[in-house]
């Protein structure tokens, strides 16, 4: 196997991490599904923008105008990157969770009964794409099948059953790629099935957008939510992009300055458009950073990204499966083309201990636990959690090799340091 270089440089890739035996190693970039390090080009754009910002949307001063222009240009760049249709809105939010909560508050009630709108969701979802629907809409959670084909058939039947019983679904909420396994359901089929029965589709794009070129216009998907901090921008900004009518008719997500045309003590005339849901001073720097990340990803050849991450994933899965006592988790038997998210267990070792060992003895940061997907981990039999490694455009082949060597060493020799559980966390 030859070396694989990162496709784009990320900030911090040469940061030194001290190990328990006194050695130092460079930080390893294998936890991008949790939060990806920023691209160097993003960090540079942020540094260039910091001296420029001033009160956005609220001032006539020169820098206020620059800030407003930067914010609105960032909004357009983010929408363009995900193929927003001409009439779609791009809202700047805090993250995927924020975007999905916002949309959940805008799902229209049943026009006849006035009951909250029905939303269909699968049990494979991250809590961010489950709990908002359960809290704010009439949500039905389907237990998925063992294959993509069965799961798709279940979704179709449920959508059809709702429509023929006079209780049609308003929305199908589905992940673009599982944050546990990187697997996904075929989007075009899902969107076709939803639309055939009068429902819209919202895609949780948190794990899809950083890894695959996605287009709302081409896919027919109605809404997309994603996060900047998983898309090689820093924390604090995400987006909700999609059909305007529900957003313009929905209750404003935040009440406050900027969301209104006119207020009298007894009446409020709310804006439509993005301003309706973006009360308060917006995150200009976050939007600029996310737009810079979108532009950097847009400049890459999507086939090259797919090949890079696909090869890293193949090496990771192949290498892990070749190690005694290691199993790789999957949801479906027939999922095509998963993104670079790989969850595994090591029989005989608590996942928290595996993650602590990888960090303390090898300088490798990975995620352990139930990945905010408790229903799925429970159904698959992993209530005790698992370990997740993930790769992206900033990950090198050498980092995958280092992880595999570390897991081999754990299975062969056990941990070298002594670990204890303190406050529920494994520590040296
Ligand atoms: N959905 C998926 C598939 C995710 O992986 C995550 C983050 N783990 C989220 C939603 C939530 O993202 P955020 O924490 O940025 O709101």
Automatic annotation (TrEMBL):
Pfam families with a match to the protein in the record: Aminotran_5
InterPro entries hit by this protein: Aminotrans_V_dom, Aminotrans_V_PyrdxlP_BS, PyrdxlP-dep_Trfase, PyrdxlP-dep_Trfase_major, PyrdxlP-dep_Trfase_small
Residue stretches making up the Aminotransferase class V domain: 30-403
Organism field: Myceligenerans xiligouense
Reported cofactor(s): pyridoxal 5'-phosphate
Keywords assigned by UniProt, alphabetized: Lyase, Pyridoxal phosphate
GO molecular function, one term: lyase activity
Family: Belongs to the class-V pyridoxal-phosphate-dependent aminotransferase family. Csd subfamily.
Entry-linked SUPFAM superfamilies: PLP-dependent transferases
Reactions catalysed, as given in the entry: (sulfur carrier)-H + L-cysteine = (sulfur carrier)-SH + L-alanine
Family matches, as PANTHER family: CYSTEINE DESULFURASE, CYSTEINE DESULFURASE 1, CHLOROPLASTIC
Coiled-coil annotated residue ranges, if any: none
The protein, known as: Selenocysteine lyase/cysteine desulfurase
Gene3D superfamilies according to UniProt: Aspartate Aminotransferase, domain 1, Type I PLP-dependent aspartate aminotransferase-like (Major domain)
């Amino acid at each position: 196997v030859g070396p694989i270089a990162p496709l784009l440089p990320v900030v911090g890739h040469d940061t030194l991490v001290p190990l328990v035996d006194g050695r130092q190693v460079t930080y390893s970039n294998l936890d991008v599904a949790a939060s990806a390090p920023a691209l160097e080009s993003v960090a540079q754009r942020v540094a260039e923008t910091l001296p420029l910002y001033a009160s956005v949307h609220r001032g006539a001063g020169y820098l206020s105008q620059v800030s407003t222009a930067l914010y609105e240009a960032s909004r357009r760049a983010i929408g363009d990157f995900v193929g927003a249709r001409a009439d779609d809105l791009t809202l700047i939010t805090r993250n995927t969770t924020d975007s999905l909560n916002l949309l959940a508050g805008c799902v229209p009630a049943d026009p006849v009964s006035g009951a909250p709108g029905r939303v269909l969701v699968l049990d494979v979802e991250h809590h961010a794409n489950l709990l908002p629907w359960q809290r704010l809409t009439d949500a039905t959670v389907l237990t998925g099948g063992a294959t993509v084909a069965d799961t798709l058939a279940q979704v179709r039947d449920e959508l059809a059953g709702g429509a023929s019983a006079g209780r049609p679904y308003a929305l199908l909420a589905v992940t673009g790629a599982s944050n546990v396994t990187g697997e996904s359901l075929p989007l075009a089929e899902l969107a076709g099935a939803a639309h055939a029965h009068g429902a819209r589709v919202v895609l949780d794009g948190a794990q899809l957008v950083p890894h695959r070129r996605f287009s709302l216009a081409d896919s027919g998907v109605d809404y997309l939510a994603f996060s900047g901090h998983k898309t090689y921008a820093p924390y604090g900004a995400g987006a909700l992009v999609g059909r305007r009518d529900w957003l313009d008719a929905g209750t404003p997500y935040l009440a406050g300055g900027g969301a209104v045309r006119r207020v009298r003590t007894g009446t409020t005339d709310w804006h439509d458009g993005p301003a309706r849901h973006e009360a308060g001073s917006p995150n200009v720097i976050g939007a600029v950073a996310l737009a810079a990340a979108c532009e950097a990803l847009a400049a890459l050849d999507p086939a090259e990204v797919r090949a890079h991450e696909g090869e890293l994933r193949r090496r990771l899965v192949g290498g892990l499966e070749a190690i005694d006592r290691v199993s790789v988790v999957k949801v479906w038997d027939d999922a095509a083309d998963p993104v670079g998210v790989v969850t595994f267990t090591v029989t005989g070792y608590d996942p928290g201990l595996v993650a602590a060992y990888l960090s303390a003895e090898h300088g490798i940061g990975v995620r352990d636990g139930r990945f905010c997907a408790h229903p799925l981990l429970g159904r698959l039999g992993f209530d005790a959690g698992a370990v997740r490694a993930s790769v992206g455009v900033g990950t090198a082949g050498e980092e995958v090799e280092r992880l595999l060597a570390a897991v081999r060493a754990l299975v062969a020799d056990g941990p070298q340091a002594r670990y204890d559980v303190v406050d529920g966390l494994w520590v040296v």
